[in-house]
Design goal:
Blueprint: E1 7-8, E2 11-12, H1 15-22, E3 27-29, E4 32-34, E5 39-43, E6 50-55, H2 59-74, H3 76-79, H4 82-98, H5 100-111, H6 115-135, E7 143-144, H7 148-151, E8 156-164, E9 167-171, H8 177-191, E10 194-198, H9 205-217, E11 224-226, H10 231-240, E12 246-250, H11 253-263, E13 269-273, E14 279-282, H12 288-300, E15 312-316, H13 320-332, H14 352-368, E16 371-374, E17 389-392, H15 399-402, E18 409-415, H16 420-427, E19 432-433, E20 437-439, H17 443-452, E21 459-460, E22 475-476, E23 479-480, H18 485-490, E24 493-501
Helix pairs in contact: 2-10, 4-6, 4-9, 5-6, 5-9, 6-8, 12-13, 16-17
């Protein structure tokens, strides 16, 4: 790594990013960068190149961070006038704008995402901080009729207050690290909570940069603490800590169950955004000019490493062959490469271990009798690249159709009926219910089928249409609660009822 500019697979990063990678990286606890004496190394998944080493913590460091967050919660943060909190968060948003290239490049080299996704992510993060900053003055209570036994004797006033939940632990995944951190941090800070963030050990860098910006913005010490570490050590300690009032977790359903169990000690509140196996339903009247790129990207966006990925594609037999031809052509033309290259449409898997897991599903689908339409291979080059892969003739009981793969693997299931209840039953035959989409030119079919799909988010003639103001979360084993929008803010607020006898 040079002091000024480093090259990754022939692509240069900015001097600011290069300088950041060259620094030592510690834990942010109580407004100071703290060394734990233990460290890990993070690598570029597109090249295998070492990026940086960073300090990691365990139960001791988590405890220090929770204590710092509690001091801040009991002290300056919750007592701060709304106008001052608004000014600080607005300042943070402007600093993120000014450092957008640094934040984007760190997610590219640490995660492998293509540049266009990283740049969009940073812009969305700035928007989210601004959105929840603007919501601070809209945190309001209500007045209501007082209890009967009070008003039988005298007059009374009953009203409600919205108050912050308290100290919040936030456990962030590796697939969109900056975005998932901000969609938790922004509403929590707007509500008046203080936070301990545990990033993924796979992708710590953009959150460490965010920590520097948080200090530069002037947030009081202890309001935001960042403790890197493994899930088994730091994550488990945070989930089970008796002085944490709420846990917000994004990740696998299996880990979500562990979070719930750990939270029972003090019955802390829990929000979970978990796995998905999202159905994509392509009706016989679908506009294939829209459906071909839309269905392909529903699966292959972010290398399929996203919880909304539309990996169960139900296609009516009348258009099956035409859709398959279009999907194969589109997928074979996708550019795989380093995310720093502006031409790249699909980057690498996060790690060699995850690549082997995804290839296991591909090999299993072949063995089970599914027909490989395109892809199916790991590229013979440095990095963790898998071709966009499409299987048809998939049966609903195959693992490739049932389990979340978190990779660029599409399962196509053919159907012949036009009965919407039957189609919805196929789409709903999953323990997950996070996202989904319907492709049709019929307005009636679109809305009737969307209403029948048991999922927290359904798009029509597009997929994964999430936004800062749109609530997002899952049914069934896809999670508890909602993020984004007003519901995202409500998750960090308590409601207190007050009655005053007059």
């Amino acid at each position: 790594m040079t002091a000024n500019v480093a090259a990754f697979d022939g692509n240069a990063i900015s001097p600011e990013t290069s300088a950041f990678l060259a620094r030592s990286h510690k834990l942010l606890i109580g407004g100071a960068w703290v060394d734990s004496g233990q460290s890990m190394e993070t690598r570029d998944p597109a090249t295998g190149l070492a990026l940086a080493s960073f300090a990691i913590g365990g139960a001791h460091e988590i405890d220090l961070a929770v204590k710092a967050a509690r001091r801040a919660f009991n002290g300056p943060w919750t007592r701060m006038p709304a106008a001052e909190r608004i000014a600080l968060l607005s300042r943070l948003a402007r600093l993120m704008e000014q450092n957008a290239r640094l934040l984007a490049e760190l997610d590219i080299v640490d995660n492998g995402m293509p540049r266009f996704i990283a740049e969009l992510t940073v812009a969305n993060c700035v928007e989210m901080v601004d959105y929840y900053t603007g919501a601070i003055l809209r945190i309001e209570g209500t007045t209501t009729a007082p209890p009967r036994h009070i008003t039988a004797e005298t007059e009374a006033l009953t009203y409600t207050l919205r108050e912050p939940v308290g100290v919040v632990g936030q456990i962030v995944p590796w697939n969109v690290p900056l975005s998932t951190a901000i969609l938790k941090l922004a509403p929590a800070l707007a509500a008046g909570c203080t936070v301990v963030v545990k990033p993924s050990e796979e992708t710590p860098l953009s959150l460490l940069a965010l920590g520097e910006l948080i200090l530069d913005a002037g947030l009081p010490e202890g309001v935001v603490n960042i403790v890197n570490g493994t899930g088994a050590e730091a994550g488990a300690a945070l989930a089970g800590h008796p002085d944490v009032d709420k846990i917000s977790f994004t990740g696998s359903t299996a880990t979500g169950r562990k979070i719930v169990h750990a939270a029972t000690g003090n019955l802390k509140k829990v929000s979970l955004e978990l796995g998905g196996k999202s159905p994509v339903v392509v009706m016989p009247d679908a506009d294939l000019n829209l459906a071909v790129p839309g269905v392909a990207l529903a699966t292959f966006f972010l290398q399929g490493q996203n919880c909304m990925a539309g990996t169960r594609v139900f296609v009516h037999e009348a258009i099956h062959d035409r859709l398959m031809d279009g999907l194969a052509t589109f997928s074979q033309a996708m550019v795989l490469g380093h995310g720093l290259n502006p031409a790249t449409q699909q980057g690498p898997m996060i790690s060699d271990a995850h690549t082997r897991k995804v290839m296991g599903y591909i090999d299993g689908a072949r063995a089970a009798g599914a027909t490989l339409v395109t892809g199916g291979k790991r590229l013979d080059r440095p990095g963790n690249f898998i071709q966009p892969t499409i299987f048809t003739d998939v049966a609903a009981d195959m693992a490739v159709a049932r389990e979340e793969i978190f990779g660029p693997v599409m399962s196509v299931l053919r159907f012949s009926t036009t009965d919407l209840d039957e189609i919805a039953a196929m789409a709903n035959a999953s323990p997950f219910g996070l996202s989904g989409s319907v492709w049709t030119t019929s307005l009636s079919t679109a809305h009737r089928l969307a209403a029948r799909i048991r999922s927290g988010h359904v798009s029509i003639n597009c997929h994964g249409a999430v936004g800062t103001n749109i609530p997002f979360g899952g049914y069934g084993q896809s999670g508890w609660g909602r993020e984004f929008g007003q519901e995202g803010l409500d998750a960090y607020l308590e409601t207190k009822a007050v009655t005053a006898r007059l």
